[in-house]
Write a structure and sequence with these properties.
It comes from Liquorilactobacillus nagelii. With 286 residues, the protein is of the alpha/beta class. It has nine helices and 14 strands. The protein folds into two domains: 126 residues, 3-Layer(aba) Sandwich (D-Maltodextrin-Binding Protein, domain 2), CATH 3.40.190.10; 117 residues, D-Maltodextrin-Binding Protein, domain 2. The chain starts with a helix and ends with a strand.
């Protein structure tokens, strides 16, 4: 009889646990952000802090590339699509159904393996290197080393911006491709003669970020457009997004997230002295 009583009291307790757990799951708000791998660290850090303030909110952050982010938000597969390029660059999208929220600016630097000995290039030399017309670092004043080009993957916003801004709309040569700036950096660091292009935050120890036409790749030079290789980091939502999406977008525009943007080496849009529209036209910010 004692055993029977224990079971009777145990079952309601277990049911109560499942009931409370179920309620917690039902009350939890979740949303998914995917796309640009360049902006991913900002969103991940912001999402972690956001959840500290809103324990019932969960933000699932994924990469996949700018093209993936744009396609999936347009298809309603995700809540927010992150992109290094304007949605209008993707011809198949119904852009009028999307809303653009510019979060930050990212400089793009050419990086070379330290053994090349190259610290300065002209834009014309950059174009010839990435189109396969220059094949040895000795041809641009460096060491006698064959050039190994590391491209970002097709669908990468960083690649599209680099080909537009640095290569004058020419495609880079067929070469090894990497899905993220972090991986591209690592391979350039470890491979003698390697060269690639990455967002500023990924310019780290062990590689050289050469000047281009005597201009250094610095935040200050991006802000004034002296360094021409930069892009916006976009957050795209559907028009009239849900309240949970609006709440997170508003949080991403807060002073707390601005600190994250600066800490990670990106540039707040408000710090720019110029603006670039979707056609590439540069205007002074008044």
């Amino acid at each position: 009889m004692k055993k029977f009583k224990r079971v009777v009291f145990l079952v309601p307790s277990v049911l109560l646990i499942f009931f409370l757990s179920g309620c917690q799951q039902l009350n939890q708000e979740s949303l998914t952000v995917a796309g640009s791998t360049a902006i991913q660290p900002i969103i991940e850090m912001a999402a972690a802090k956001y959840r500290q303030q809103r324990p019932n909110s969960y933000v699932n952050v994924q990469g996949g590339g700018s093209e993936t982010g744009l396609s999936q938000v347009a298809e309603r597969a995700i809540d927010i699509g992150t992109s290094d390029v304007f949605a209008s660059k993707k011809a198949s999208l119904q852009v009028h159904k999307l809303q653009d929220h510019k979060l930050a600016v990212s400089g793009i630097a050419v990086i070379v393996n330290a053994k090349t000995g190259v610290h300065n290039l002209s834009m014309r030399q950059v174009q010839k290197i990435f189109t396969g017309k220059i094949t040895n670092w000795q041809q641009v004043g460096g060491k006698k080393l064959p050039i190994t080009v590391i491209n970002r993957a097709e669908g990468s916003g960083t690649r599209l911006n680099f080909e537009t801004l640095a290569l004058a709309h020419h495609s880079s040569m067929v070469a090894q491709e990497q899905a993220s700036s972090g991986t591209a950096y690592q391979i350039v660091k470890e491979t003698a003669g390697a060269v690639s292009y990455v967002a500023f935050p990924y310019v780290q120890a062990g590689v050289i970020a050469p000047k281009i036409d005597e201009v250094k790749p610095t935040v200050a030079n991006v802000e004034d457009n002296h360094w021409k290789l930069w892009s916006y980091e976009h957050l795209y939502t559907r028009q009239n997004p849900s309240q949970k999406v609006r709440d997170f977008i508003n949080y991403l525009g807060s002073s707390q997230v601005k600190k994250i943007i600066l800490k990670l080496g990106f540039i707040p849009v408000s710090a720019m002295n110029v603006a670039r529209n979707r056609y590439g036209t540069i205007e002074t910010v008044k």
